[in-house]
């Protein structure tokens, strides 16, 4: 049966799925990087496409902004046969060492959001990326010589609530930047036995109200997507190590 929000049939979604928040970015990724991309859903502007990259079937599925929407999409993708979910988006840097358009590869997400709290009934939990996905992404970033950082991100609900003071406090605790979907994607993936990762390009320093110039950010997004796709190729060619785990 069709899912309520991701209106696709089993078989239309590939095992590997890139998850941008923005539908325009989903279309851009499908049209720029995938061969034979075909749109399988446009319901609620949660645009979804499936094509191939270097012969590997890959889908690109919009999540929308924030954890509630991302959790719905991740849950429905699991029912449609997805096995590896990789968020590709942007984040606000928590520290100046994360330069404009730098790639941030998340190892885990501090869950400062309401969705994971509700899913867990308030229980303490550390939403983490799958080691295999992090490893493949780091290796791809090195091969492509993409400036990158690896570590914690924080997932938040209130985009305009972050302040420079809040950013620097969490930077002192190891957080590289702030975004809005990773914790929910990591949690749902763990609950459903999927692999998950999160790659983001830095759009601004929380201490600086100016966004990165469009051309600079576009270059960062291009590097991020290429790293994600190269990571997928590596994951697809790796020997199977048994059931997928979160």
UniProtKB/TrEMBL annotation:
The record ties this protein, via PROSITE patterns, to:
PNP_UDP_1
Pfam family, any one: PNP_UDP_1
One GO-annotated biological process of the protein: nucleoside catabolic process
Q: Which InterPro entries match?
A: Nucleoside_phosphorylase_CS, Nucleoside_phosphorylase_d, Nucleoside_phosphorylase_sf
Q: Name one GO molecular function term.
A: uridine phosphorylase activity
* Entry EC no(s): 2.4.2.3
Superkingdom, taxonomy of origin: Bacteria
> Start and end of every Nucleoside phosphorylase domain?
16-229
A GO CC term assigned to this protein in UniProt: cytosol
Query: Per the similarity annotation, which family is this?
Result: Belongs to the PNP/UDP phosphorylase family.
What name is this protein filed under? Uridine phosphorylase
């Amino acid at each position: 049966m069709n899912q309520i929000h991701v209106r696709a049939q089993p078989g239309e979604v590939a095992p590997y799925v890139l998850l941008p928040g923005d539908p325009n970015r989903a279309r851009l990724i499908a049209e720029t990087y995938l061969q034979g991309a075909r749109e399988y859903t446009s319901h609620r502007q949660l645009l979804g496409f499936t094509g191939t990259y270097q012969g590997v079937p890959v889908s690109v599925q919009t999540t929308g902004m924030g954890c509630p929407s991302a959790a719905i999409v991740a849950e429905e993708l699991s029912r449609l046969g997805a096995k590896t979910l990789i968020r590709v988006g942007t984040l606000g840097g928590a520290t100046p060492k994360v330069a404009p358009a730098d790639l941030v590869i998340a190892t885990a997400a501090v869950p400062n959001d309401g969705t994971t709290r509700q899913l867990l009934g308030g229980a303490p939990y550390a939403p983490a990326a799958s080691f295999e996905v992090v490893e493949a992404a780091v290796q791809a970033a090195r091969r492509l010589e993409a400036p990158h950082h690896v570590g914690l991100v924080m997932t938040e609900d209130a985009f305009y609530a972050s302040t420079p003071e809040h950013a620097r406090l969490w930077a002192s605790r190891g957080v590289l930047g702030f975004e809005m979907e990773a914790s929910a994607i990591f949690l749902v993936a763990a609950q459903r036995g999927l692999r998950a990762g999160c790659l983001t390009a830095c759009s601004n320093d929380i201490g600086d109200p100016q966004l990165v110039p469009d051309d600079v950010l576009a270059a960062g997004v291009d590097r991020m997507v290429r790293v994600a796709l190269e990571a997928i190729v590596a994951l697809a060619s790796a020997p199977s190590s048994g059931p997928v785990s979160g």
